[in-house]
């Protein structure tokens, strides 16, 4: 993939990349690209969840502006929310699932490519910390399921426990 991308870049710029450009790309460039891709796709996926609220508000406003019969906002919001649930299943569920997979791939690639992730803010913020959070949440869930009869409910970690890159943990 890397060589294919570089060939396409050379076509776009109309010339082979010189040694300085290649050296600059070795200086946290690729890990930054993957970290930013992970962040952008993750943020985009969060926007999908906001669609029902936007649509419901638009419907409520349009009905008011057109002097239509009033309908309780809770009903409008429920209709849109439940309709959106079915629309997602039919159309974009696959896209969202693929997007979530891509976010995970981008995060792992950024961490693996980065020669010093602990000194690269974007890699820590957009990749290391979310991967750590996911690992902890998954582990907590699996332990809770495995030992549900033996253990008291597993608590969330204390806010006093910091995260990588958090200035309070220095």
Model description:
The structure is a single chain. With 170 residues, this protein is mainly alpha-helical. Helices cover 71% and strands 0% of the residues. It contains six helices and no strands. The protein has helices spanning 2-13, 19-25, 29-48, 51-65, 73-113, 121-146. Helix 3 (29-48) packs antiparallel against helix 5 (73-113) and helix 3 crosses helix 6. It is flat. The protein starts with a helix and ends in a 24-residue tail after the last helix. The mean pLDDT is 80.
Q: Count the strands?
A: 0
Helix content: over 70%
How many whole angstroms does the radius of gyration measure?
23 Å
Query: Could you give the order of the helices and strands?
Result: HHHHHH
Largest sheet: none
* Unreliable residue stretches: none
Total number of helical segments?
6
Q: Compute the average pLDDT.
A: 80
**Beta-strand content estimate:** under 5%
**Quaternary organization:** single chain
Give the structural class.
Answer: mainly alpha
- Tell me the span between the first and last alpha carbons: 37 Å
